[in-house]
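Working notes for the structural subgroup meeting. M.R. asked for a predicted model of this chain before we commit to crystallization trials. I am recording the input and output together here so anyone reviewing the notebook later can reproduce the run.

Input as submitted:
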Amino acid sequence: MLHEDVIVEAERRTETGKNACNRLREKDLIPAVLYGGGSGTESMSLSVPRKALLSLFRKGIHQNVVFLLQLKGTDEKRHVMVRDVSLSPLRRELVHVDFLRILLDRKMKAKVAVEIVGIAAGVKLGGLLDVVTRELEIECLPADIPVSIPVDVSGLGAGEALRVADLNLGDKIRVLGETDRVLAHVVMPRAEVVEGAEAVVATAEPEVAKKGKKEEEGAKAAAPKGAAPKAAAPKAAAPKAEKKEKK
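Returned structure, recorded in token form:
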């Protein structure tokens, strides 16, 4: 996407290194670097006002958006794109920005988010929409880079899938990668059958009781009918003390 009405002013800096960058941040300036643009172009160290960058990001001018970068005190302007942003690990504050020079007449590669549009017909019947691909890599001219790639799933039925080959992005945009790559599909939930767990629990105790009763009946059947119970063995008589003979 091209925004030639957005102009960010930057100043060239000669001092580099950690200490020099910290001094810039104390002045509310963010260290930056400009590179790219084909052979014969050199990278350039810059500084940009923090407020100008924050205003840029609030407008949604970030990745894949082309705007103008102007050197302070000159009429020199370049088409650029924000390539990378560095934040401090603790405070998450902006500490560095990378700008990429853009040639409007040269195609470039970019990664663009997939935007799901509509409600799938299979979802209305109880299915679930599974989004498999959330980002696509494309190739086109910088001015033709879309903010997102819309994918209409309204005609997607149960068990059906949309693939890269089904997209119609025109002749200006070419999607890189395999054309049979699945973007989204509708899956139907499977019904889980729970076998009679309650019945098993309910009959567990009666089964145990029956088993004990059967064992008791088996023991009684083993004994002959009318047989008297065995008498306990008589205890051994204690030996009598021997009488002493009278002399």
